[in-house]
Fold Hydroxyethylthiazole kinase.
Amino acid sequence: MRTSTSFCGELLDLVRERNPLVQCITNDVSMNIAANVLLAAGASPAMVSAEEEAAEFAGIAAAVTINIGTLWAGAVPGMKGAAREAGTAAKPWVLDPVAHYATAFRRQVVSELLELKPTIIRGNASEVRALAGDVSQGQGVDSRDSSASARGSALTLARRHRCIVAVTGDTDFVTDGTRSAVIEGGSPLMPKVTALGCALTCLTGAFAAVAPGQPFEATIAALALFSVCGEDASHRAQGPGSFQPLFLDALAAIGPQRLDAEARISLQ
Ligand SMILES: Nc1ncnc2c1ncn2[C@@H]1O[C@H](COP(=O)(O)OP(=O)(O)OP(=O)(O)O)[C@@H](O)[C@H]1O
Ligand SMILES: Cc1ncsc1CCO
Ligand SMILES: [Mg+2]
């Protein structure tokens, strides 16, 4: 078992060296912030989702991320085609089950996507609790549960689907069903900026792309980068409006040593 978390800095370096192409099938709200987060961190985002090309594009992407935030029926074949292609090509793909508990349509699509075996599931506490079958108080896309209360649900899900599960909130938790990590940091301003979690899902794809066979470490590194940069930006921000550009600047400016020095990760 690893006792050091210096893999975070190493993986950040690799993202910048390799500039991985990440196919982001994400919601309409998150398109701009997700692409900017990936560019700032050093990855190469492409928002390619049409049924006619999503699977083909997954063939050239280094990772695929799928987010059901603004779901409509026409989006589903592209999502499933890209997930299938990623699975066939043994490329990582990340699922963000936004508000999957809210409607029968979302529940159905998420269950079909889960059958295609995501490498990583990233959600907020209410989403992770509900996906595991636990009581959830989520309201639309917003969590109403504490992230600490979703740790058991994350373990259940990771074991059930044999994947990595990341639950975010005031503290973050990552597990592969056996090993776990708690990541502290971030800022209460982060949930006040829309789609930062969606952007983090896409960034997790970028880290997984440069860490084949190590999706647990990749997920921790992506979340740690968000936590350190979010906390840093919050020291200078006056509110959610000024936080967003400061956060992008922090993502672009941070180096591997500073990430390793400031990340607060406990491996369990
Ligand atoms: N209260 C908080 N304190 C510190 N960091 C937070 C807090 N809430 C969320 N974060 C951070 O914000 C980022 C996004 O996580 P969050 O759980 O808000 O995602 P989400 O609910 O899926 O977001 P969205 O649906 O708006 O994209 C993570 O890096 C997380 O650590
Ligand atoms: C606000 C919103 N609505 C659907 S997706 C989304 C972005 C945050 O999940
Ligand atoms: Mg979300």
